[in-house]
């Protein structure tokens, strides 16, 4: 299966007086069609920086991001990439869900004649069709998070970048969003996911990229990460959380 995304030797260096801070140091990985890849690591590891560069919000110091074989560094609002950073910001709270999505459909370059159909489509995917005419300021946190995913889906992108999609949500709502992510992958959409919820990564990720101090520490399946941690129990394999906690000291910046 061909790679949808190829990240090659990404570096991001910040200069502060006479010091250099290497936010990213030689990051390379691939994502195939319909694959869910999770970036896993402590705060400050570089996960959001990677997402921001791929999404076109930040320029790297060095490296390439290839989408379907074409370098997209320097391209903003790429039509084949949808980005969801989540959170309370990003929408007009006095406007309805449909009105918000109409605004972002323009930014995503969805043709005007197709926008009504497209907005209906993405609201159905995230189970918000029944509140299309409700003002976003009246949405719960879980509804807002689903609306972020709907916004990212405008234009039918090949790749979704989801940064902490269930952060701060209760268990039931978080599960509904995870189910949505699974369904999107089943439809052939490739997903790059960041999350601090180990059970979420364990349930969703086909591949995990363990990152620390701006470098890739390890890449593999949940079983690969568990094996690398060398955590074992008499009666069962270690969980991803137990394995991550064992590896975490090596991932922190010195």
UniProtKB/TrEMBL annotation:
SMART domains in alphabetical order: AAA
Entry superkingdom: Bacteria
Domain ABC transporter positions: 5-238
UniProt keywords, alphabetically: ATP-binding, Nucleotide-binding, Transport
GO MF terms, alphabetically ordered: ATP binding
Keyword Transcription regulation among UniProt keywords: no
PANTHER family named among the record's database cross-references: ABC TRANSPORTER ATP-BINDING PROTEIN, ABC TRANSPORTER, ATP-BINDING PROTEIN
Name of the protein in question: ABC transporter ATP-binding protein
């Amino acid at each position: 299966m061909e790679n949808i995304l190829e990240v090659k030797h990404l570096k991001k260096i910040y200069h502060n007086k006479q010091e250099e801070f290497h936010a990213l140091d030689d990051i390379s990985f691939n994502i195939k069609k319909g694959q869910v890849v999770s970036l896993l690591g402590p705060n400050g590891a570089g996960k959001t920086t990677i997402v921001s560069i791929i999404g076109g919000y930040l320029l790297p110091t060095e490296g390439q991001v290839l989408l379907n074989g074409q370098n997209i560094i320097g391209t903003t609002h790429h039509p084949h990439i949808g980005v969801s950073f989540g959170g309370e910001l990003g929408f007009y709270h006095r406007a309805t869900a449909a009105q918000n999505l109409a605004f972002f459909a323009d930014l995503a370059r969805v043709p005007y004649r197709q926008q009504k159909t497209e907005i209906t489509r993405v609201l159905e995917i995230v189970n918000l069709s029944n509140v299309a005419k409700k003002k976003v300021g009246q949405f719960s946190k879980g509804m807002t998070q689903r609306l972020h995913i709907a916004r990212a889906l405008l234009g039918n992108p090949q790749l979704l970048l989801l940064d902490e999609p269930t952060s701060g949500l209760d268990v039931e709502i978080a599960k509904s969003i995870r189910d949505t992510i699974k369904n999107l992958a089943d439809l052939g959409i490739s997903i790059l996911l960041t999350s601090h919820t180990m059970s979420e990564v364990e349930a969703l990720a086909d591949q995990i990229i363990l990152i620390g101090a701006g470098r890739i520490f390890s890449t593999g399946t949940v079983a690969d990460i568990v094996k690398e941690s060398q955590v074992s129990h008499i009666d069962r394999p270690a969980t991803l959380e137990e394995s991550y906690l064992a590896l975490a000291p090596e991932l922190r910046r010195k």
